[in-house]
Amino acid sequence: MTGETALLLRSVSPGDANAVFAAGAKAVKSGLEAEALPLLEQAAQRHPGDPRIWQVLGLANRKLEDLAPAVAAFEKAAGLAPNDPLIAHSLARCTMEAGLPSVALFDRALALAPNDGSVLLGRAAAQLAVGRIEDAIAGLAGPLAQQPGWLPGHASIARLRWLAGERRDFTASFEAAVAAAPRETAIWREWAETLMHAGHYDAALAVAAGGRAAAGPDVAFDAIEAVAVDEKGEIDAADALFTALGPIGHVTMAARYLRHLLRAGRPAEAATFAEPWLADPEADLVWPYVAAAWRLTGDPRWQWLEGDERLVGVYDIADEIPSLDGLAATLRSLHQSLHQPLEQSVRGGTQTDGPLFARIEPEIRALRQAIVAAVERHIAQLPPPQAGHPSLAPKRAPVRLAGSWSVRLAGAGFHSNHIHPAGWISSAFYVALPDMDRGHEGWLKLGEPQAELGLDLAPFRHIEPKPGLLVLFPSTMWHGTEPFTAGERMTVAFDVARPA
C-alpha cells in the first residue's frame, strides 16, 4: 500500500484538486506525509479557496510535528469552511498541541458536533492545559450521565480526578454508570482495570464480583480476578485462578502470566512459556520479562538481548541547546498538575500532558532538533540487524517520535521501574538537577525489574545525570531512577517509534 501511495503522489498534478486531496489523505494515513508535502503546498497555491487542500496540508504538517504551519493551514481551512465540524476539531486539537489557547476553539467545534466524544475529550485536555481541571471534570460528567457506556469518557474523568488529588472517589462515574446499565460487562471491566492501574486490587476484586452478580459470568471477570490476586502476592490462589482460565490467547494476558511466574520464583518456566510469544506483533510486552527470566537462570541469551553496550547511548548535547535555563523556565510553566498521574511511573512529581515536541515554543523546537540529530547518531552506531532481536531490526528509518513529555520530581521523588512497550528507543534528557552527592542518588538505573515482582536482580548499569545529557536505551529495557533527598529534578523524555 505504501509503494502504491508513493507512486500515486508522483503521478498527481497539483492542478487537479480532487486528485491531490485523495492522494494527500492516503499519504498521511500511510506515513508518507513528508513525501506529500511539496505536492500539497503547490496545490494550496493553485487552489487557495479549497478548504480540503488546506485541511490535508494541516494534517501532513501535524504528523510531522511541525505545528506552526499546521495551525496556519487549519485556520485557512476553517475560514473557508466555518461550519465543517471535522475542520473545526482539527484546528482546535492542533492549536492545543502547539501550546496555544484552544478552549474557545473546542467550544466552537463542540457546537458543530455536540455528541462527538473525541471533541469532548479534547476540550477537557485543553482546559487541563490552562489549569482548569475542575471545568474539565465537569465538562465530562454531564455527557457521561447521558451516555453511561462511553468508556473513553470514564477513563479520562478518572485520570483527571486522580490528578486533582481524589483517591477515594476517582472512579465515581463508573459507579453511576453501572447503576444505570448494570448488565453492561464492558463498564464493569473498565472500572476494575482502572482501579488496578491505581494499585487498588481489593477494590478491583469487589468490582469484578459485582459485575458477575449483575451482568453474569464472563471470562473478563475471571482474568481480572487472577491478575488482581497475583498482584496482591497470593501466589497459590493466583496459580489456581490462572489454571482455571485455560490456554492464554492474547499477549497482554501472556505478560500478566509471566509476571506471575516470575513472582512465584519460577523463571525457567517463565522463559519456556514466553518462547512462542516472541514472534507476536506485540511481543514488546513480553521481552522485559524474558530478560529477567534469562538473567535469573543464567541464560547466555540475555547478553544477546541487552548486554551489548552499544544499545545504550549517552550524549552530551548541552552545547546544541540555546539555553538550558530558558528551557527549564518554559517547562516549569507547563507543569500544571498538582499530583502525579495515574498509570505512570512518576512518584512524587508531575508529568506534562500531550505531545511535548509538538509545541511551538522556540526552546522546545530547538531541543527537538538537537534530540532528533542525536537519535540519528545513536541509531547509526547500533549493532547490525539480528533476526528476532527487538531492538535490532533491519529497518531503522525514518526517525519518528511516538510520544514526548516532561517530568518534574521534587525531593524524594523517583520513577518506579518500568518499560515502554509502545516504543523502540526510549530516553532521558536532563534539564535541571538538584545537588546529588550521595551514592547513586537521583541516577538512572537500567535492568532492575519492578519492585512488585520481588526479584533479586540489581541494576546492571547506573548513569549519572548531568544537565544537557541525553541517554538513549531500548524501550523494552527495565529502567527507573534512584530517589533523591531534596530539590528539583526536571527531565524531558520521549519514545522513538519502531519504523514500520
Would you mind describing this structure in some detail?
The strands form 2 sheets. The protein has a 6-stranded antiparallel sheet with strand order 1-7-4-9-3-2. A 3-stranded antiparallel sheet has the order 6-5-8, with no helix packed on it. Helix content is 51%, strand content 11%. The chain contains 21 helices and 9 strands. The relative contact order is 0.08. Helix 4 (51-63) packs antiparallel against helix 5 (67-80), helix 9 runs antiparallel to helix 10 and helix 14 (219-231) packs parallel to helix 16 (251-263). It is globular. It is of the alpha+beta class. The protein has a domain at 309-496: Sandwich (Jelly Rolls). The model has no long low-confidence stretch (mean pLDDT 93).
Reading side by side through the largest sheet, how are the strands ordered? 1-7-4-9-3-2
- CATH topology title of the domain at 309-496: Jelly Rolls
Instruction: State the CATH architecture of the domain at 309-496.
Output: Sandwich
Question: How large is the count of helical segments?
Answer: 21
Low-confidence sequence ranges: none
Question: Describe the biggest sheet?
Answer: 6 strands, antiparallel
Ends distance: 12 Å
Estimate the helix proportion, in percent. Answer: 40-55%
In CATH, what is the class of the domain at 309-496?
Mainly Beta
SS class? alpha+beta
By DSSP, the count of extended strands is 9
What is the CATH superfamily label of the domain at 309-496? q2cbj1_9rhob like domain
Instruction: Tell me the overall shape.
Output: globular
Note the run of SSEs as H and E: HHHHHHHHHHHHHHHHHHHEHEHEEEEEEE
Q: Kindly report the average pLDDT value.
A: 93
Give the amount of beta strand, in percent.
5-15%
Rg, nearest Å: 24 Å
